[in-house]
Amino acid sequence: MASYKLSINGGSYAVEADPKMPLLWVLRDLLNLTGTKYGCGMAQCGACTVHLNGNAIRSCSMPISAVGNQKITTIEGISSDNSHVVQQAWIAEQVPQCGYCQTGQIMSAVALLKRNANPTDRDIDMAMQGNICRCGTYPRIRKAIHKAAAMMKQPPAKSF
Amino acid sequence: MPTANSINRRAFLKLSGFTGAALTIGFYFPALAEEGVAIVTAETADTLGIALNAFISIDKTGKVSILNHRSEMGQGSFQAVPQMIAEELEVSLDQVSISFAPGHQNKYGSQITGGSSTVRGAYKHLLRTGATAREMLVEAAAKKWNVPATECYAKNGEVIHRPSSKKLGYGELVEEASKITPPKNVPLKERKDYTIIGQPLPRQDTPLKVNGKAEFGIDKKLPGLLYAVVERSPHFLGKIKSYDDSAVKAMPGVKYVIKVQMPVFDTTREGIAIIADNTWAAMQARKALKVEWDTSGFEHLDTTGLYNRMKEDLKKPGLSQRTGGNFEAAYGKAAKKLEAVYETPYEAHACMEPLNCTAYVQNDKCEIWGPIQGPDWIQRDLADRLNMPIDNITVHMTFLGGGFGRKAFTDYTAEAALISKEIKAPVQVVWTREDDMTQGPFRPGAVYECKAGLNNGRITAYQTKMAAQNMDHQWPHADKTSFNNSTTEGLAEAFINGIDHYSFCDVPTESPVPVMWWRSVYSSTNGFAYESFMDELAVAAEKDPLDFRRQHLREERYGALIDMLEEKTGWKSRGKSSGWGVAITECFKSVVGEAVKVSRNAAGRLTIDRIVAVMDCGWYVNPDIIKAQVEGSIVMALGAATIHETHFTDGKAVETNFHQYQMPRINDVPEIEVYIMENEEKPGGVGEPGLPPFAPALCNAIFDLTGKRIRKLPFNMNEI
Questions:
Q1: pLDDT at B546
Q2: Which terms are listed as keywords in the entry (chain B) (predicted)?
Q3: Which of B399, B430, B461 is the last residue of a domain?
Q4: pLDDT beyond 60 at B18
Q5: One-character DSSP codes across B82-116
Q6: Same domain for B370 and B411?
Q7: Cα→Cα distances B508→B298, B329, B347, B430, B468, Å
Q8: Which of A8, A109, B122, B154 is most buried (CB neighbours < 10 A)?
Q9: Strand, coil or helix: what is B148?
Q10: Which pLDDT band, with edges at 50, 70 and 90, does B17 fall under?
Q11: B98 contact partners, CB below 8 Å, separation of at least 6
């Protein structure tokens, strides 16, 4: 066991954990951040996707000892009030069915749009291939990412 | 008569966060079937001493709470149930909140979410319950105003007095309304007056599912919760000969190592549970466990042997028959005879949320939380197993990360309860992906032998013989001697009235592989056999595939569906440059036609260019959910047709995780067009019927393009 200080969603968390414990289980079982899901445990399905310094990674295969002081963002850090443009696009396109994989899908989509604000279908296919959806929401995921990209281009609504 | 000792009115109100007076109304299932379904209020329920299921409750602020008696695994019951009630109750959906009903057979009737039955099974009761509450609120307002109820109507959460335009909100009326005896035979709205039913309203669970707040079974947390994984025999039915847990017990976080049993149909599985203070610690410790499995006396079967056995079984007459006319005589006289054999694979359910269950057994009570399709069944099972009164078993519902039939079972919940009972602590048992994928039960593989005779371009004789494991034969004391209708589900349903001489038989193949319902059940493979064969017959008859099918249908309903398919695909102007295939199947009282367009890309690879689906599910609630379900069914069918299969070797499953059991990914799936038929038919299923026609439509399209007939699934698109 070792002590770690983690930067998650802008906050600081201290945990005691086995250095080999994957970030996924630290988040879920030690910190109760259960929006990040267990799907396969071998980086095959993407249900556990989180961001490490803004890049999408599979938290099931990332030992806690390798995280260091890199900034972790989980679905809970995207927004809790669904104000993020990707969440809004996901709602507008009614993407989720069972919803289990969707937090991971959204994390991959947010990372994609951060580095490519105008992705083509092919860009989306390349970036989202690592995320399995057994409910088969893929066509809607594709639409929602295009929609989010379009929403990002609009000037923010004025508030008075 | 059901008893009212588990959830009385006050308890329900508390549960719902209500204070003060409220109108609580629901339906219950009297013990005597002839009494039908009765609608009662909380007061009546108290007097009668019955348990009120409390489907609808309205508090003094006018807030409406609805209990969903079915599981939400993506199929949309969480949206369809309130949409139906809100329509008749005359409230907008934003006035309604919905929560899960716990498992209770006496209160909610059958709660097994399967057979695509939530809407088609309960729509009449749900509409009537909403309408009854509405009429009581109208009557309450009329009493308050001292005017005839006929002068009043309800709209948008208010009762309005037509002559004076006076209004009272539902919240102001609940106290008065709760004293009224629910009227019988309330009028239901006409379909043309619907403003909520039939609308593609956004799902109420979506916001929870895009920010991580939706609670799935695996997300359940309890004070003092321990986490367990179970070392399971890799071979079906293996027993523990010996085990060494000394290294396990020394590992960090490990609390207990115990031997557990899990009932699966008429067999008992054995395993070693490792219980630790977090999931990963339990998973790590499991690796240090040494178990010697006794697999003697059990079959070490493999896939090849299993399919050879099915093919041998096809030589037997088959114990079951569904016949019309005289197949043999008509076949003998046919001008043209066709025969073909089709094979379909065993499949894992592979829900994205692996099986898991949280259980807490205390002295005289047991609580269960989990992704569950059959809460009332689990309640009964655990009452028996733990020897407790049924009302001491509470089955709490969470969202399900996929179900597809696998979570309509009692094995994983029984196992968790037995572990909790032994360690006297709340425990969450998590199946690793490997456990989930290798232990089954699986969709059974099947081999079909199809024969048909043609005269003058028409089918005059048709026979399908199927060899496959029969799911119903796994139960203790199962009747294996007579036909039980399950295996021929969805087999040639659409055309059965259009063929004079037909015969369906099945030969149950015996095997120790546990098998189970898998989205659309036997229809998922039956559809492939008969709709591929139908295409072969159309080719042999030198007919257009749509015209050929049309010619064998005796119901206008199918004709209208084919017309729609023809129109939406642009069938008549489809040209010859690409391949087009169609298939039409019926199951769970819905008919679905699908058409697929394939071509070769510049690299010579076969690609799917278009998928067009037409769903006829009769009366429906939410068209967007229907479209989503058909899209999802098609993607699941694509995987089972072209990508994945569970193989067996040496008595165990070969594919252990997604690296071997590959799934369709976003790049495999083109746009899917879904159209819904508008008609006056009764509601049919939505979650499953879109699956069976896809594989045959795809294979028929490939034949159209390449001349290659695919009779065995799965096949590799890249190898065609």
A1: 97
A2: Membrane, Transmembrane, Transmembrane helix
A3: B430
A4: no
A5: HHHHHHHHT--GGGEEEEEPPB-HHHHS-----TT
A6: yes
A7: 19, 26, 18, 33, 5
A8: A109
A9: coil
A10: very low
A11: B65, B66, B67, B68, B78, B81, B82, B204
Tell me whether residue B693 is in a domain. yes
Residue A153 clears pLDDT 70, i.e. is over it: yes
The pLDDT value given to residue B300: 86
> Are B444 and B471 a contacting pair, CB within 8 Å?
yes
Given a contact cutoff of 8 angstroms between Cβ atoms, the answer to whether A90 and B206 are in contact is yes
Reference B63, options B26, B33, B29, B98; nearest CA is B98
- B contact residues 377-436, partner A, Cβ 8 Å cutoff: 399-404, 430, 432-433
Q: Do B312 and B292 share a structural domain?
A: no
| Closest Cβ–Cβ partner in B74, B284, B657 for A40 | B657
> What residue ranges define each of the domains in chain A, with the CATH number in brackets?
2-78 (3.10.20.30), 85-153 (1.10.150.120)
Tens of pLDDT, residues B149-196: 999 999 999 999 999 999 999 999 999 998 888 888 899 999 999 999
Q: What is the pLDDT of residue B52?
A: 54
Number of domains observed in the structure of chain B: 3
Q: What sign does the CA torsion over B308, B310, B313, B314 have?
A: negative
Q: Nearest CA of chain A to the CA of B659: how many Å?
A: 6
Q: At residue B154, what are phi and psi to the nearest 5 degrees? A: -105, 140
Of B209, B351, B666, Cβ closest to residue A125: B666
Same domain, B676 and B594: yes
B21, pLDDT greater than 70: no
Q: Chain A partners of B400 at a C-beta cutoff of 8 Å?
A: 98
Note whether residue B350 is domain-resident.
no
For B642-652, how does the pLDDT look when each residue is reduced to its tens digit (9 = 90+)? 999 999 999 99
Q: Looking at the structure, do residues B516 and B402 belong to the same domain, yes or no?
A: no
Higher pLDDT among residues B126 and A49, named by residue: A49
For residues B165 and B244, state if they share a domain. no
Cα–Cα dist B670/B680, whole Å = 32
Q: What is the mean pLDDT of residues B697-716?
A: 98
Spatial distance between the Cα atoms of B395 and A129, rounded to a whole number of angstroms: 37
B185 touches chain A (CB under 8 A): no
Predicted local distance difference test score (pLDDT) of residue A154 = 82
| pLDDT tens digits for range B455-504 | 999 999 999 999 999 999 999 899 988 887 788 888 888 888 889 999 99
B65 dihedral zone (left: phi>0; alpha: psi -120 to 50; beta): beta
Q: Domain of residue B543: give its range.
A: 303-345+442-719
Cβ under 8 Å to A: B residues 319-358: 350-354
- Residue B639, amino acid: G
Give the helix/strand (H/E) hosting B380: helix B375-386
d(C-alpha B386, C-alpha B366), whole Å? 9
CA distance linking residue B251 with residue B286, whole number of Å: 10
Nearest-Cα residue of chain B relative to residue A37: B353
E-strand spans in B124-188?
Answer: 152-155, 158-161, 166-169
| Residue B3 belongs to a domain | no
Chain-centre distance of CA A159, in angstroms?
A: 29
Cβ within 8 Å, pair B433-A40: yes
Statement to judge: residues B542 and B569 lie in one domain: yes
Q: Are residues B527 and B602 in the same domain?
A: yes
Residues B285 and B307 in one domain: no
User: Any idea what the CATH number is for the domain that residue B370 is in?
Assistant: 3.30.365.10
ipTM: 0.97
- For residue B387, count CB atoms less than 10 angstroms from its CB and return exposed for 0-12, middle for 13-18, buried for 19 or more: exposed
**Under 8 Å between Cβ of B253 and B262:** no
pLDDT at B631 over 80: yes
B669 contacts in chain A (CB < 8 Å)? 136, 138-139
Residue B18 included in any domain: yes
Token look-up 């390798």 returns A66
Listed residues B171, B188, B209: the one ending a domain? B209
